[in-house]
Amino acid sequence: MTKNFWLLLFALLLPLSACGPIYTTEYSFVPPKSAEGRMCVQSCGQGRAYCRHLCQMDKHACVQDARDRAMDDYRAYVRRQNAEKKPIKRNPSDFDRSYACGTSSCESRCESDRRECYRDCGGQVIAREVCTMGCDQIPPQPAALPYSPKPARVAAPHAPLCQTGEEVEVLYEDDWYEAVVTGPLRPDGRCPIHYEGYDEDEDEAVWPKRLRPRQD
After folding, report:
1. How many CB atoms lie within 10 A of CB 33?
2. Gyration radius from the chain CA atoms
3. Mean pLDDT of the 165-169 span
4. Is the pTM of this model over 0.85?
5. Which band of pLDDT confidence, cut at 50, 70 and 90, is reported for residue 72?
6. Would you tell me the crossing angle of helices 35-83 and 104-120 to the nearest 10 degrees?
7. How confident is the model over 198-210, as a mean pLDDT?
């Protein structure tokens, strides 16, 4: 039964991949400037964790209920086969529908609530579309001059700060935030950083000109 399910899923996805590129939305988070706002967004992360925990509990209950139903259906099948003097060719797993007990929609709601909470706290949520399937069908686009590799070299005087583990400060609007560099300078000229005191979901890549050494 499980094999048939995956074959059906593949058959449904195959036409979609032939229709053109498929995109998904990714989000980056810019923390609020105030200390109160930073404390507020931490509670957003805690709320998301609790929401996900409830999703897992719901899934566990759904799976258990589906397996109980599968056993009931299997016993009814066995009784029917015995009554008709037919061989028993199926087993309990053939009646199991627990594969339908997913958490994607529940966790999607958790993420949506977290983004709304983050904005209410004064932070910014930036969405961007990323190709996940059929990306080879995207026609090549001419590189925009402001974002071509050569202009990115303007940040070169600040690039030495982009060293893994380097403690820096990152400029956002008119304030500086403490952060740690999490990797080397990327090919596009940006530097990956992690804001201290925030979740990893809020990590981002910034232009080196927004970096300065940590101020004591």
Report:
1. 15
2. 26
3. 91
4. no
5. very high
6. 170
7. 85
Q: What integer pLDDT is reported at residue 150 of this predicted model?
A: 39
CA 209/CA 175 separation, integer angstroms:
14
Question: At 48, is the secondary structure helix, strand, or coil?
Answer: helix
CB 103 within 8 A of CB 60: no
Sign of CA dihedral 206, 207, 210, 214: positive
Q: Return d(Cα 10, Cα 79) in angstroms, integer.
A: 35
Read off the tokens for 120. 């209410």
CB 171 within 8 Å of CB 212: yes
pLDDT, tens digit, 9 for 90 and up, residues 77-93: 999 999 999 899 899 98
H or E, element range at 132? strand 124-133
CA distance 100 to 62: 9
Structure token pair of residue 17: 């991949």
Q: Which two tokens stand for residue 205?
A: 């890549």
Return the closest-CA partner of residue 129 out of 207, 201, 16, 22: 22
Q: Residue 62 burial by CB count (10 A; 0-12/13-18/19+): exposed, middle or buried? A: middle
Nearest of 114, 76, 71 to residue 94 by alpha carbon: 71
